[in-house]
Amino acid sequence: MNNSKIWLSSPHMGGNEQKYVQEAFDTNWVAPLGPNVNGFEIDLETYLGENVHVAALSSGTAALHLALILLDVKQDDEVICQSMTFSASANPIAYLRATPVFIDSERETWNMCPIALEEAIVDRIAKGKKPKAIIAVHLYGMPFKYDEIKTISQKYQIPIVEDSAEALGSTYKGKKCGTFGDISILSFNGNKIITTSGGGALVAKTKELKDEVVFLSTQARDNAPHYQHSHIGYNYRMSNICAGIGRGQMEVLDEHVALRRENHYFYLNFFKEKEGVNVLFEPTQDYFSNHWLSAIELDSYEKREALRLAFEAENIETRPLWKPMHLQPVFSNCPYYGSDVSEKLFDKGLCLPSGSNLKEEEKNRIKAVLELFF
Ligand SMILES: *Cc1c(COP(=O)(O)O)cnc(C)c1O
């Protein structure tokens, strides 16, 4: 029996990526600028709509770092961040020597809880510091409660940084994720819904802001014949080779979303009849998730571990949900608001194989493990 590894989420090429990369070689645009970078940015702008301006960067983390710089986050400032997320959402706060203030999740989308968010803002202001930004994440592709979070952002005049690293192709009330933040970011790392082998983007609302991102991400060179600098710059621009992969991937993005959503329905169908398993799904018609990763919550930690190990024994990769940032040793001294929703999800939750390249035969192997287990 074939026992080759089934990955949680692996790169899935569409076919034309190499054509764009070959073009880059043929024209010697082997550099962090060129026609593929421009083309990829236009592809993303067209896809997202809403008159956004996209700057292609070396990673989603770099995009978050620049987003916080653009929002003037400095040493000793406070930045609010969803606790249940990948560490890359929070690390850029630390790069700037600012303090993250972590917020619990709500039960429906597993994203930032609006009630805990407002409680945190009120308390931080009472303690003498108004947070500089709110980093909200669409976990596993599931849109966060945008209307509620936006209302709070407006009430207290604190901008939203939308971490849409996992949610390209998701929508909320018909609008694409990646267009909701005052500043938004995307990631094209190897495991994401589309990949450039490594890369990211910052989505800006104005051309001026995008130009500033390009300026900062290419070492902040002033307009002079020699190297003249009046700002600290970064080497964060995307390479024209990687952007070529991105252009090929954009051609298959919608197909990948459809395939990931099929995986979700495959699991949803299986668990429909099972007691004690809760699948992450859209709470209302307003939400449309790309279902980047299909995730479930079991009724205990022990059961979650048993299932994870049952998959592991069959060479099938699964992964516990993101460990909340307020439980991470590196952030243990940071303020936290909420209760134990994200902690419980972490204890009992599991991400299942979700690649858009999962084969029928692989799904059968997954189903066999599930059937034996339940
Ligand atoms: C992947 C990811 C990032 C970081 O993106 P990179 O391109 O890997 O730097 C940020 N936030 C979330 C939620 C992610 O999943």
What's the number of domains? 2
Report the span from N to C terminus: 22 Å
CATH topology of the largest domain: Aspartate Aminotransferase, domain 2
Task: Please outline the major beta sheet.
Answer: 8 strands, mixed
Structural class: alpha/beta
Protein name: DegT/DnrJ/EryC1/StrS family aminotransferase
Organism: Flavobacterium hankyongi
Pfam families: DegT_DnrJ_EryC1 (PF01041)
InterPro entries: DegT/StrS_aminotransferase (IPR000653), PyrdxlP-dep_Trfase (IPR015424), PyrdxlP-dep_Trfase_major (IPR015421), PyrdxlP-dep_Trfase_small (IPR015422)
Structure write-up:
The chain is an alpha/beta fold. The protein folds into 2 domains: 17-250, Aspartate Aminotransferase, domain 2; 253-373, Aspartate Aminotransferase, domain 1. The protein is built from 12 helices and 15 strands. β2 (78-82), α4 (91-95) and β3 (99-103) form a beta-alpha-beta unit. The model has no long low-confidence stretch (mean pLDDT 97). Pyridoxal-5'-phosphate (PLP) binds next to α3. Belongs to the DegT/DnrJ/EryC1 family. GO terms for molecular function: transaminase activity.
Helix/strand layout:
Layout: H1 17-26, H2 35-48, E1 53-57, H3 60-70, E2 78-82, H4 91-95, E3 99-103, H5 114-126, E4 134-137, H6 146-156, E5 160-163, E6 171-172, E7 175-176, E8 183-187, E9 200-204, H7 207-217, H8 240-250, H9 253-272, E10 278-279, E11 287-288, E12 294-297, H10 301-313, E13 319-320, E14 336-337, H11 341-348, E15 349-352, H12 360-373
Parallel strand pairs: 2-3, 2-4, 3-14, 4-5, 5-8
Antiparallel strand pairs: 1-9, 6-7, 6-11, 8-9, 10-12, 12-15, 13-15
Helix pairs in contact: 1-8, 2-8, 5-6
The structure holds pyridoxal-5'-phosphate.
Keywords: Aminotransferase, Pyridoxal phosphate, Transferase
Protein name: DegT/DnrJ/EryC1/StrS family aminotransferase
Organism: Flavobacterium hankyongi
